[in-house]
Amino acid sequence: MGEAQVSLKHLFRVFTKPEHKDSKLAQIEEHLSDNILDFLSQHVVTKKTSLEEVEQDFADAMMPESPEFVSTHAENLLEKLVAHSVNTYSPTFIGHMTSALPYFHLSLAKLLVGLNQNLVKIETSKAFTPLERQVLGMMHNLVYEQDESFYEQYLHSARHALGAFCSGGTVANITALWVARNKILGPEGRFPGVARAGLASAYRHYDIDNLGVLCSRRGHYSLSKAVDVLGIGRENLITLPCPEQVLDPAEALRKGREYQEQGNKLLAIVGIGGTTETGHVDPLDELADVAEELGCWFHVDAAWGGATLFSKHYRGILKGIEKADSVTIDAHKQMYVPMGAGMALFKNPADANAVRHHAQYILREGSKDLGATTLEGSRNGMAMMVYSSLHILGRRGYELLINQSIEKAKKFAAMIEAHPDFELITSPTLSIMTYRVCPAAIQEQLKTLPQVQAQRLNSKVDRLVVNVQKLQREAGKSFVSRTRLECPVYGAYPITVFRVVLANPMTTTRDLRAILEEQHAIASRNRVWQELLAVSAPATLDQA
Ligand SMILES: *Cc1c(COP(=O)(O)O)cnc(C)c1O
Known about the structure:
PyrdxlP-dep_Trfase, pyridoxal phosphate, lyase
């Protein structure tokens, strides 16, 4: 059924001629541009709850032998793929950083594919290259606030880069630490630098055992990937516990010194401008001073939280970010740009030269090809989405969006605190918070129990939280994520908590109330809830 003819003549049509206006794909397109929310609520049905069931639709590894009509294929996509996707546009999907997007991105995405520019080199991108450089300049300005003459000098300079545009925070973090590594183990005397000679020679030349990166335990796992990729090794990602939720500068200094005294070199301190799990912001200003004292690079991972800088009211939370040698910001998080838009920004526009590469057929000496200083090669023009968003929303538009997220988070936190059977675990600095469901009677008991017993009881509450989170997700009305954290109230062992990211501007306080009520209903019907209350009499606790 639906088998298309195999002839070049027919295949050429796929390149040149769209299908009829009433074909399935055209219908999908029209529905999407007409009303995305309606499209999603109609087609994303998620009737299959388990991933294993969905896997049945993608079970064989046979290469399709013959061509298929686009329309037939579109049906197939709707049925197998779209139906079991996740409706990230839903205002009650508040578990992750991925959310609804402004509608204009759909049309821009079409323009992007229509033009199919490759930003690795000017020969395949032309205007997109200066556009991307301008976007990096605007974001650099947001962080570092240099004067006009600075940007005049560097924005389009072939020998400088204000940043590197990339696919996301992971690559941005790797890029920033790559630059840092190549600078810290740079050329010296007859030593040509780590980029040419490799790590083993560099360690010998600099007479060090290891190179390390220091951050808090809340650091994103991409930092662990970064030290792995850069050859430094995961054991040299020094993660400090953060009982106060943020990296303690005095402790960072002490640990950094200790590491150096053991014959190692500290590559960088990474401060986090909005942790992925709890949204906390490290004391960036003080950490910058610590990095200076230790003589290492200071990187700020503000992949998620960086957009707070748009808000005059809240940007002070990130105070000190302007002292960072490099900063990661993801546009595909709080800037509401589709995925694939991250940036590493460099305070010093000459720093990117530490990773500059040349090739004969492109990226020639003196060219403005962006690919000379990016980790990725072929790359699409996502910078256009950022450019357009910055224009369409403006700084003031972003400011409103950021402010309302933070204020809504505060309201939700108050709602949680006011509910006897919920416990706020980390209150929102920005618009992420964690909390858990726990019967009021158990909360009372936990206050007085000795640690060992409290821990045992808490592990039962953990089970309740896990059950509720899973059941809520399976019910499909709303979604909250979960994680495990050490929190100040319960000391040195981790507990399981719900994690909320308020990303979608369309989420209302009514949605939030409904989510709490749904969780409460699921929890109080759960077997673990009954078990908790049954063992809550102190006499029987030992068997709990
Ligand atoms: C999301 C995030 C990252 C990773 O970014 P990707 O775009 O997912 O690669 C890194 N650090 C922090 C703090 C993040 O929130």
